[in-house]
């Protein structure tokens, strides 16, 4: 059964809104633990998103703890809604985080890191299919950002829900994931 991106956005936004805060925390921890099984830990530059709690995104705090415990360089972004560009900054003890008008927690400023230096990207999404295609919020920020990364950058989706069979309307320009991690399993594409 194929579903369009629009149908899937509606379905998964609703499914996420029905999760309790405890479920979000438990499942986010399970996702972080599953990440330990993926062969990415020899890399140094990890890009992570800070969750929009109002959208009940995967809480990446657990992953942040893993990364800092393993002494990795952690990179977070600031989005420019006029240009659809993301600027990436090294997360340090001095980084000030502020929510933008869309409730996205972002760094105020800091040490800028080029996309080409990033080796692993944790990608937010609403859902994904068994081929590694994802459905985000439809603004195109991550499609643009991922196209600027080196081709061998490892792209890992984080999801509370299992894969859809197939997403209808995937474009040539859509960059597929290498992995997607759910609380119960790791999908490899």
Automatic annotation (TrEMBL):
Catalytic activity entry: (6S)-5-formyl-5,6,7,8-tetrahydrofolate + ATP = (6R)-5,10-methenyltetrahydrofolate + ADP + phosphate
Keywords: ATP-binding, Ligase, Magnesium, Metal-binding, Nucleotide-binding
GO annotation (BP), single: tetrahydrofolate interconversion
Enzyme class: ligase
Pfam families assigned to the protein according to its UniProt record, in alphabetical order: 5-FTHF_cyc-lig (PF01812)
Cofactor (UniProt): Mg(2+)
Binding residue positions for substrate: 52, 57
InterPro entries listed in its UniProt record: FTHF_cligase, FTHF_cligase-like_sf, NagB/RpiA_transferase-like
GO molecular function terms noted in the UniProt entry: 5-formyltetrahydrofolate cyclo-ligase activity; ATP binding; metal ion binding
Enzyme Commission number(s) from the entry: 6.3.3.2
UniProt: ATP binding residues: 5-9, 134-142
Nucleotide-binding among keywords: yes
Family membership noted in the UniProt record: Belongs to the 5-formyltetrahydrofolate cyclo-ligase family.
Name listed for the protein in its UniProt record: 5-formyltetrahydrofolate cyclo-ligase
């Amino acid at each position: 059964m194929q579903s369009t991106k629009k149908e899937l956005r509606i379905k998964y936004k609703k499914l996420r809104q029905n999760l309790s805060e405890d479920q979000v925390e438990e499942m986010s921890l399970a996702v972080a633990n599953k990440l330990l099984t993926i062969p990415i830990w020899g890399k140094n530059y990890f890009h992570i998103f800070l969750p929009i709690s109002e959208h009940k995104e995967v809480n990446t705090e657990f992953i942040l703890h893993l990364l800092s415990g393993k002494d990795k360089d952690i990179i977070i972004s600031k989005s420019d809604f006029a240009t659809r560009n993301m600027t990436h900054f090294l997360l340090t003890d001095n980084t000030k985080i502020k929510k933008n008008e869309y409730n996205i927690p972002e760094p105020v400023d800091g040490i800028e890191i080029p996309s080409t230096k990033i080796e692993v990207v944790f990608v937010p999404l609403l859902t994904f299919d068994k081929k590694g295609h994802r459905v985000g919020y439809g603004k195109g920020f991550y499609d643009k950002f991922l196209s600027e990364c080196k081709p061998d950058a490892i792209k890992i989706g984080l999801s509370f829900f299992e894969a859809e069979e197939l997403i209808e309307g995937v474009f040539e320009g859509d960059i597929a994931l290498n992995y997607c991690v759910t609380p119960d399993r790791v999908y490899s594409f």
